[in-house]
Amino acid sequence: MKTRACVLRAREDVRIETREVGEVGPRQALVRIGAGGICGSDIHYYWDGGIGAIRVVEPIIQGHEVAGTVEAVGAEVVRVRPGDRVAVCPSRPCGKCKFCLAGLQQHCLEMQFFGSAMRVPHTDGAFRDRMVVEEFQCEPVGDGVSLGEAACAEPLSIGLHAVNQAGNLMGKRVLVTGAGPIGALLIGAARVAGAQEIVALDVSEAPLRAALAMGASLAIDGAREPGRLEADYSADKGYFDVAFECTGVGGVLKQAFPVVRPRGAIVQVGVTGSADIPVNALVGKEIRLSGSHRFHSEYAVAARLIRERRIDVKPIITETLPMERIEEAFHIARDRRSQMKVQLSFAS
User: Fold this and answer.
1) What SS3 state is found at 277?
2) pLDDT digits (tens, 9 = 90+) for 47-73
3) Cα distance between residue 304 and residue 60, in whole Å
4) Contact (CB, 8 A) for 172 and 189
């Protein structure tokens, strides 16, 4: 059996090509992909040819935010059956290294993650009509949500993992800097976790609208009101119990320190090369600064929250194009003023 796939061959060179699907193993499932979201890493691979030191050096099938319908299963599969609609987890830890054995699968030494150029050969992704996946990667989502919504399980998982890094949010005051798809979904996760108040900061219209739709109490436009965050929330050594920094911009991280209260927490979600950290504030206010990397158990939780509609992800989906128009989708996705999550639809 063959399938169409979105293959990136070089910077700004993505093509629809035909690939073999492969055989279904005893603990595997054949999934007909229905929807896939374009992530920031996909965008960087296309426009820049990589992310930092990670470079695309050979053809790679892109995509890791997908959902679809099970078409066939192996003889030993029990958790899904043909006809089930599933979110497909892109993470495939080895289960054998010291981190996997310690329950830290997101740090697996042999991780295979859909659409990643971190290793050579690269790990192909899921922007294709059909693919064979492991049984454990399939999370049923039922018939009550669209496959586009189900495909948001992966970015929602990142938000859920960040919330877990922060600890108990019940009744807490929360700041989210950067309300793109990850930040906006994190707002939904924080709301479900019991946050009393959530303030979002961004500089573009679409993220600010999405932040409010996902449950933020207030969305501050940092471009129009550059000093408002510190002016309104820095009195008496800070206001927020927790800040989630989702932009990856060092200057934005620095803005969080004056507004986080003593013994509060800052969770860095966005990636960056380096940042100027005000160490005196970190020490003097005893702020806990931590990073947040991917997810593991949170993926099943994300799929369930979407399936049960406890988190409505529709506000972040702003455009859907057929896979044949992937190049156009990459151009559209660059416009942060009007776009959040641009998705592809797949149909054989």
Assistant:
1) coil
2) 999 998 899 999 999 999 999 999 999
3) 30
4) no
